[in-house]
Design goal:
TIM Barrel; eight-stranded parallel β-barrel; 16 helices; binds 5-hydroxymethyl-3,4-dihydroxypiperidine
Length: about 450
């Protein structure tokens, strides 16, 4: 008989979204332009020329979306604020209509018994700040602190869970190094400054949020794949180590270890610091390691790293048979046990007081009968349960995503929702995975998917 996995009574069952991916209303009621508006309006940047101009039209349909969350029985909802909706120029004059939108949403969530988790920055930087250099400019960190202050003053009486940034490594390496995300910059020295200013802005924002919202929990969300070397060859192990610019370059300074010296040497060799690390000023590293209440982890896939024929070019190997079960439509490996791996790694190495899985989910385009997504979620939630048994303080889980939405450079072709969205009409329909997730929440648990047998890596 399949084992039933009970979760702790206080476990936070949630779903997540992000402003640019669902809201639409891109230029309504005084909202300023964001870098994603600019990027998606630039031909050739996003698959199919898709934009977030309308997206899921959540800006107009938010009441219906709160009803949807209620019908799922969600305990919590993680969403991000559009900075440019609130501060159209990134700093200075506040757009009250923008603040009101979020304030009304927060009230409706609380009335529905759903705890709001707010992410301040999920990639849609005001274009006005980009015009001054964006995250490569230290002043953007100052502007972020101002923004954090404004919104935590306005919402901090009711919102008790704050996430400063979502996945700063993606902004850094995809937005400023390879340019496939907004703002589309391709410059390594700008990328390393970006990483630093994102971290610094987190460090500056946390005390302001605590001051304005004294009972709140404050944290940051980092993305982390379960990465393993393809073999024990020196080249594969070294490639794996270098790939940790995605993780250790962010985790280490946040937890007081500074920038890892081995990765610093790699980046130096690639020309990242033409004038040294002079962008790191006195007091910065101390600000960055400000204590937080939790870390949010976004986990999607295992990556088995194999050095290429020509030098050490990163390559992902595909160790499992290429089936839709084993690889999602994004070609990301479905490897539930890797979630146990990253939870263990982060907890036992950095000892955050609490962890939330702030995103986990799968891209499959099946409209309503999405059993592959359900199987994915089931194996990943089983891994969460194993983490709890191992003593890891995992407090909650947010499925990505509440509904299909704008998947960045992929436009609308990758669907992660547990709710189907008809992008012609805006109509929402719960998928089978959504119905299954509602049952998991109702029973506070699920039938286990066994951990893989034998050697796990
Ligand atoms: O859609 C994104 C989200 O915005 C950030 N984390 C990964 C998701 C899937 O790619």
């Amino acid at each position: 008989m399949t084992e039933f996995l009970h979760f702790p009574p206080s476990f936070t069952w949630g779903a997540a979204t992000a402003s640019y991916q669902i809201e639409g209303g891109w230029n309504e009621d005084g909202k300023g332009e964001s870098v994603w508006d600019r990027f998606s309006h630039t031909p050739g940047k996003v698959f199919n020329g898709d934009t977030g101009d309308v997206a899921c039209d959540h800006y107009h349909r938010w009441r219906e979306d709160v009803e949807l969350m209620k019908s799922l029985g969600l305990k919590a909802y993680r969403f991000s604020l559009s900075w440019a909706r609130i501060l159209p120029q990134g700093r200075g004059e506040v757009n009250q209509a923008g603040l009101n939108f979020y304030s009304n949403l927060v009230d409706a969530l609380l009335e529905a018994g759903i705890t709001p988790f707010i992410t301040l920055f999920h990639w849609d930087l005001p274009q006005a700040l980009q015009d001054e250099g964006g995250w490569a400019n230290r002043n953007t960190a100052l502007a972020f602190a101002e923004y954090a202050d404004v919104v935590s003053k306005a919402l901090g009486d009711r919102v008790k869970h704050w996430i400063t940034h979502n996945e700063p490594s993606v902004v850094t390496w995809l937005g400023y190094l390879n340019g496939i995300h907004a703002p589309g910059v391709q410059d390594l020295p700008s990328a390393v400054k970006t990483a630093h200013h994102l971290l610094l802005s987190h460090g500056w924002a946390v005390p302001l949020i605590r001051h304005n919202s004294p009972q709140a929990e404050v944290g940051i969300t980092l993305n982390i794949n379960w990465t393993v070397p393809g073999s024990n060859s020196r080249a594969d192990r070294d490639l794996h180590r270098q790939g940790e610019v995605w993780t250790r370059w962010f985790f280490d300074p946040l937890y007081g270890f500074g920038y890892p010296s081995d990765l610093q040497a790699d980046l130096q060799a690639r020309g990242a610091f033409p004038t040294g690390m002079d962008f790191v000023q006195a007091g910065d590293m101390h600000a960055i390691q400000v204590p937080t209440d939790f870390v949010g982890l976004n986990y999607y896939q295992r990556q088995v790293m194999r050095a290429g024929e020509e030098g050490n070019e990163p390559q992902t190997a595909f160790p499992q048979e290429k089936t839709p079960q084993n690889y999602t439509e994004f070609n990301w490996e479905n490897y539930g046990h890797g979630l146990f791996g990253v939870l263990s790694r982060v907890y036992f190495h950095y000892l955050p007081p609490k962890i939330y899985v702030t995103e986990n989910g799968a891209s499959y385009s099946a409209p309503l009968h999405d059993e592959l997504r359900t199987a994915y979620l089931q194996s990943h939630l089983s891994a969460c349960q194993r983490a709890l048994q191992a003593g890891i303080p995992l407090e909650g889980y947010f499925v990505w995503s509440l509904m299909d939405n704008f998947e960045w450079a992929e436009g609308y072709r990758q669907r992660f929702g547990i709710t189907w969205v008809n992008f012609e009409t805006g109509e929402r329909t719960l998928k089978d995975s959504g119905k299954w997730y509602a049952e998991v929440i109702r029973r506070n648990g699920l039938e286990a998917t066994p951990a893989p047998q034998g050697a796990i890596r």
